[in-house]
Every structure is written in structure tokens, then in C-alpha cells.
Amino acid sequence: MVLPVCDSEQRLVGIITADDIFEIISEEIYEDYALMQGVVPSEKSYLETSFMTLAKKRIIWLLFLMLSATVTGGIIERYESILSTAVALTVFIPMLMDSGGNSGSQSSTLIIQSLALDELDFSDCLRVVWKEFRVGLLVGMILALVNILRMILFTDTSLLVMMTVSVTLLITIVLAKLVGGILPLLAKKLKQDPAVMAGPLVTTIVNACALLIYFKVAQILIGL
Amino acid sequence: MVLPVCDSEQRLVGIITADDIFEIISEEIYEDYALMQGVVPSEKSYLETSFMTLAKKRIIWLLFLMLSATVTGGIIERYESILSTAVALTVFIPMLMDSGGNSGSQSSTLIIQSLALDELDFSDCLRVVWKEFRVGLLVGMILALVNILRMILFTDTSLLVMMTVSVTLLITIVLAKLVGGILPLLAKKLKQDPAVMAGPLVTTIVNACALLIYFKVAQILIGL
Known about the structure:
By secondary structure, chain A is mainly α. Chain A has seven helices and two strands. Chain A has two domains: 2-36, no CATH class; 77-222, Orthogonal Bundle (Tetracycline Repressor, domain 2), CATH 1.10.357. In chain A, strand 1 and strand 2 (12-17) form a beta hairpin. Chains A, B: Acts as a magnesium transporter.
């Protein structure tokens, strides 16, 4: 398949081959995903790119993400008194943040992909919310149950800490699925690239929320 | 462009259109990235897929990642005494784990992409290591410096904690870049799909290493 390219007077000025089209399709998709992982896409191949260029393309997002982690740090600082009375709670912070972050990026990946393939639109927002809510509830309950079993079998976690962790896990997963589902749609509506806006933002928002929920639940259940 | 498909006696049994080829290319790439984000790829569109199916496609990786977070939890538990004497250290755990995880997935994304485009091979291993090492060193130093400034200006972190955090950040970033660079190449060498093996594994390995380095450096510098 070769497509002719003509000027305004119908004179042939060039051709577009099937190869050109294939290349553009795959490059566009790769660009989206590079952006989602916080890498500014490059025209050159990896081995051709100097380490300085690679570093430049990566540093912006890393700086942004490191500074946004100030938020999670600030939350921990604010509730330091809770952690110092119940150090056991610290053990579950990475698990809660990771599970939340992963749940969120699973959803945002799928929604960004569907947006790119034109299978979804902002008008489907409520359907996405309802679907992600149910997925989150089901997945969250299974994760919480497996985690309770793990804690009972392999750790000597107190009942109150187990309850705090489980309730937080369930709420965080549901919230992560909702944020991961809605944010790319919102980005599209605001005429921003969903891949750029949604990827790292989802993790940042979900991480902060996971911690806030954790400490709030701990205050209520353990009464600290 | 239409390609004929013939049987062994050269009779036409079907055709392959350009559309078929485009679809296969973009689906293959999307599949890779869905797997990297821990989602089992689907043939159907998002809205056509039931919430039960979506949940099923996501639960396996979430369970795997949650259980692998047992490792980070275990490391924190083992060094609980350090955290109870220096609760301030807890504040930086999410930042260190996130920065490490992100640095690692930036590298693995790029390497997986280069492998898919056949721009890289296992034989380029040493070149990748050398490039990622320098990128990590440069990026890590910039991040550490910006973070020191931030800590001095906006927090009242003690000098020893600042040093612990900075040294850990630098080592973690370099390590994350190396792990993110090597793991996909190793997966390819072992004839595994780099996207499946490298994505979630990089984060898990880097997170665990970040914590171990943090506590080791704290023991040496703060002398706990």
C-alpha cells in the first residue's frame, strides 16, 4: 500500500508507504507509555542516546514525584505520635501504598488505552465509575481476606491493627480504582494528554489518600 | 495493501488487509503495556467487559504484589527498634521507595521498548549497565541535592537524618537504574516476556533494597 502525497495543483510531491504508517502507529503508542512512566519520549534509539540526554529526559518527573512525596512525608510527620505509640502500624505502610498505587495504575492504564482506541469518551464517566467501584469492592475484599489470613498465619499482629489494615486496604483499593478510572477521562475532557496527566498523578493522589485513611481508621479503631 | 493467504495447493483461502495488520500491531503493543501494569490483556473493549472479568484480570498481580510487600514489611519489622528510636526516619520511607520504584520503571520501560523494537539484545548488557550507571549517578545526585535543599528550607530534620536520607537516595537511584536496565534483558535471555517479568518485579526488588540500604546507612551514620 502506497499513498500519494500531492500539492495544491495535484502534482506528486511524495509517497507514504505502509512502513511509514506502521512506524507512526507504534511510535505514538510507545510515546504514550513512555510518558506514563515519566520518560520524555525520544526519536533516537536507546544505544544512540547519550547518558546526559537520557538523564535529562528522566529528571523532571523524578523531581516532581520526589517533591510530591513531600505530601506523604508530611502526613506521616503529622501522625508521628500514632506511629510512635503503635510502631507495628509502620510495617504495613509500604503494602498499603503499593497496593493502592498498583490498583490505581491498573485502572488508569486500561482507561487510557480505551481512550486512545476511541472506545471511551467523557460521557461514559458514570459507567466507568460504577464499573470501577464494583471491581474495587470485589478486588479489595479478596485482598483484605488474603491479607488477614497471612497476618493470622505468619505474624503476631494484634486484632486491632489487623482490623485497621483490612479496613484501610478495602477503602484504598476502591478509591484507587475510582481515581484511576476518572482521572484519565478528566484529563481528556480538559484537553490534556491522559497519559501525561494520569500516570504519575494517580499514584501520588492514591498514596496520600491511603496514608490519611490509614491514620484516620487507626485513630477511630485503636483510639490513639 | 491486501495480502493473499493460500493453502498448500495455492488456492486462495483468505486475505489479510492493512487494517488487520494495524490492529495486530497496536494490540500487541497494548498487551505488553497492560502486562507491565499487571493487567491481563483483554480482547473485548472496556465497556463490553463485565466487572467480574475485569476483577479476575487484575486480582492475580495485586495478590502477588501485596504478598511480595510482605518482604518490605518484614524488613521494617526487623529494624523496628531503629524506627522507634528515630521515628523521623519513617517520614522518608515513602519518598525513598517511590523515587526508587519510579527510577527503576523509567529504565525498564525504555529497555522493554527497545527490546520490542529489536534495537537491543542481551549482548548489549554491558553497554546498558554502563549507561544506566552514569544516568543513575547523575540523576541521583541532582535528586539528593534538591532534597537536601528542601529539607533545610522546609523541615527541621537533623543533620544525621539528612545525611542518611541523601546517601540512601543516591545508592537507591543508581541501583534502581541498574535493576531496571538489566532485568528486562535477563528476561529476554531466559526467553520470558520482558514486559511480564520486569514491570512489577523491578518495583518489588528496588523497594526492598531501598529499605535495606536505608536501615544499614542509618545504623552506620546514626549508630543505632
